[in-house]
Design a protein that fits this description.
Blueprint: H1 2-8, H2 16-31, E1 38-39, E2 46-47, H3 50-78, H4 90-94, H5 99-119, H6 125-151, H7 156-161, H8 167-187
Antiparallel strand pairs: 1-2
Length: 194
């Protein structure tokens, strides 16, 4: 009877296709760290391409698989793989000024994925830009600024304004993510399920 009881328990099942997509986007985020990082300003937070991967994960895969891809990537960095830009691990990044930005990737991808699902199947580019900016800049900068307040001696205004040098690159990432997501959702409607 023990086998009968076990078969009644709900099990978390992730289809193989979803697992493959999650793995591909985790790898994409890692690959976007290969060009390295540029540190500008006084906060010590580097400019990287990896935020583009986070935006794409949410905009293309949705909240469930996009968040899973970011969590898989972060888990790999936490066990010591040097996948963050500049060859850093997750533990190294969490000890530095960019800790809040890294943590902000998770709610950022969640927001992007959740809101993207609401504008499908059409994916109007203006709404895609707004959603990617909200999750990929607004949410991540919020967590990043809070992290700067905890990890550095910066005051509130200095922590907020330290995001300024990051903004032009992140706006470009928002545009790229929206254009790519529009093309993907046109070619593969139904990619994001509720």
């Amino acid at each position: 009877m023990e086998g009968v009881e076990d078969s009644r328990r709900p099990r978390l099942r992730v289809p193989a296709r979803d697992m493959a997509r999650i793995a591909v986007f985790a790898a994409l985020i890692a690959a976007l760290g290969l060009p390295g990082a540029i540190t500008v300003g006084f906060s010590g937070v580097p400019i990287t391409l990896q935020t583009l991967g986070v935006m794409l994960a949410g905009a293309v895969l949705g909240w469930r698989n996009g968040t899973a891809a970011v969590l898989v990537f972060l888990a790999l960095t936490m066990i010591g793989l040097p996948l963050l830009s500049g060859g850093r691990t997750g533990l190294t990044a969490l000890a530095g000024p960019s800790a809040g930005y890294l943590i902000g990737w998770v709610p950022g991808v969640f927001v992007i994925g959740l809101l993207t699902a609401r504008i499908l199947p059409k994916y109007p580019i203006a709404l895609g830009l707004l959603i990617n900016a909200l999750g990929g800049i607004g949410v991540i900068y919020l967590f990043g600024t809070l992290g700067l307040l905890v990890r550095t001696d910066l005051g509130v205004w200095a922590a907020i304004t330290s995001n300024g040098p990051l903004l032009p690159g992140d706006i470009a990432k928002v545009v790229v993510a929206a254009v790519v997501a529009k093309g993907v959702h046109r070619a593969y409607p139904g990619l994001i399920r509720g």
